[in-house]
């Protein structure tokens, strides 16, 4: 069972989705949950079925004290690298909160201080703390919705299904049709590539 973070102050959990993708943004969410929030199925978004993720998204948006979601797009990822882009997305998501957190818990082991708010990195935090799990649900569902939208523009890569991750089908599409403006140019799009002309 996931835990609450035992502090009396307002704690924001934050997580990102799409870090390992070849196309699309990296998306982060930040969530402050009420101290009495409970949900028996809330967990790391990767462990939850699609229909449950969508149901949890509605519950979190209705019951959270506040939440924020932010994309960092391909051009910026290519400029600052994916790690910095992931942290930037989390900072932007926190900035969207309607009240300032007094403490931040972050999924993973890398973060940069946000203003002067104390923070803690938690490895696999999305499977340990409710607010990080809630952030993982919002980040994933929001990013998935974006990838399904741009799938309509470039259906040959099947982003509706693979969400921009480096599946065999996605890479076959890149090999056949080349890259798009939604692809991350700083990523190795094909395993055998030395240089890919854009």
From TrEMBL:
A divalent metal cation binds at residues 15-16, 107. Manganese or magnesium. Binds 1 divalent metal ion per monomer in the absence of substrate. May bind a second metal ion after substrate binding. GO terms for cellular component: cytoplasm; ribonuclease H2 complex. InterPro entries: RNase_HII (IPR022898), RNase_HII/HIII (IPR001352), RNase_HII/HIII_dom (IPR024567), RNaseH-like_sf (IPR012337), RNaseH_sf (IPR036397). GO terms for molecular function: manganese ion binding; RNA binding; RNA-DNA hybrid ribonuclease activity. It catalyses: Endonucleolytic cleavage to 5'-phosphomonoester. The keyword Glycoprotein does not apply. Its cofactor is Mn(2+); Mg(2+). Its main location: cytoplasm. Transmembrane segments: none annotated. Its EC number is 3.1.26.4. Residues 9-198 form the RNase H type-2 domain. It is found in: Cytoplasm. Keywords: Cytoplasm, Endonuclease, Hydrolase, Manganese, Metal-binding, Nuclease. PROSITE patterns: RNASE_H_2. GO terms for biological process: DNA replication, removal of RNA primer; mismatch repair. The keyword Nuclease applies. It is an enzyme of class 3 (hydrolase). It comes from the Bacteria. NCBIfam families: PRK00015.1-3 (NF000595). Endonuclease that specifically degrades the RNA of RNA-DNA hybrids. HAMAP family: RNase_HII_B (MF_00052_B). Belongs to the RNase HII family. This is Ribonuclease HII. It comes from Salegentibacter echinorum.
